[in-house]
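2024-03-11 09:14:02 DEBUG pipeline.ingest accepted 1 chain
2024-03-11 09:14:02 DEBUG pipeline.ingest length=466
2024-03-11 09:14:03 DEBUG pipeline.predict start
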Amino acid sequence: MHFIGVGGIGMSALAGILAERDFTVTGSDPRQSVLSQELRQRGARIFQQQSATTIDAIRAGVSCDPLVVISSAIPEKNPELVAARQAGLEIWHRAELLAWMINAQRSIAVAGSHGKTTTSSLIATLLHATGMDPTAVIGGVVPSFGSNARNGASDLLVAEADESDGSLVRFRPSLGLLTNLELDHTDHYPNLEALIATMQRFAGNCSGLLANHDDPILQEHFRPDHWWSTQPGSAADFRAEPIDLAGDGSRADYIEHGQRLGELHLPLAGHHNLSNALAAIAACRLVGAAFEPLQQALQRLEPPGRRFDLRGEIAGRLIVDDYAHHPSEVEATLTMAQLMVSSGRSTLPWVPQRVVAVFQPHRFSRTAEFMDRFAAALGAADQVLLAPLYSAGESPIEGVSSAAMADRIRANGHDAQAFEHLEDLADAVMSSSENGDLVLVMGAGDVNRLWHLLQQMHDSNSIAAA
């Protein structure tokens, strides 16, 4: 199998699992990343250049032609893809390969607008901790695995089902899970109705379906086999009724089919994380995991990479990286951060005094659709610094920019600044934040580079001072 763009989070997961399953795996990616290095360690042959000669190289000296795997990020004019087509090679979309894996074994596929990576990561972690040893294909690094993928010894597979391009309708999992639904990926879905229709097709392909009863869109448009809820008194099959929600985690009573089985202690802050953890427990229970080992394993959970991910401390500021790039995600993440400030309890090394939000708008289409909602959500921060908009290959839309978003935030009565370069943003983070601040960096683009820029700046200043 040859993966064009193998360094991506989804492509590398599949390539790694297949390499461990003794497939001959090759790939190409001009970006050198930790994921690419890990693939080399697993025996994969990785080309740094993408060219037609790569196709010749991988066909040389083999008994059969490779299957070529691409993602939606690979353009038709990509030289390797062009050469593969000219050579008559079979070409699969990443979703076709993932579907082949999901459909061939007992599987759990996690779908929805928000919380997919966290929930699928938690499911895989809990199942592994209880001895069920699943294969996992996740859109983020799972802390307990140290990777975004794992080749398990059991017949069970846990996968994140991405709805961004509608390809998840190929999946036929044993258990489908729906976290929530809200309009996003407006480059693919013209309206909410189109997204609902796609997700209904996915739901219809699942042998069993588990869904979030607290989401009004799911309540109205879906009829799952099982519901979960964090609302007291709900009629859902699986419930977690909150006892204490604080900045250092949550406690809740766990009720299954009307029977209280015990108390949950979750070391992740935020109501949204309690819902994600409950969904994970419910899924594990539905595939046969015992409750008490799950209850114990829950207390050791960590979020996946880039989900409120503490990068470190610089000059008295805590730097946290988060993938939030939709208004609802920004709102939930900021609510969790402010809960740490207000409750005086934190999962971080110390309790922050203020929250400085560093946000990078992602895609012109998404930013245009949700400009007002982003401005409202970011108003929950004590200070807002905006990175240059990350286009993800989209053409500009007039009047849509980080500067325009800053204007909206200021019009709402909150402090906001926009920057044209990440280097200028890094300067502003250090000059305008204070000792004791939590600098919460959010976005799905290249804003995660900010941590390294801040490190370089701090090291340079330290050398100059010496």
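2024-03-11 09:14:41 DEBUG pipeline.report The mean pLDDT is 95.
2024-03-11 09:14:41 DEBUG pipeline.predict end
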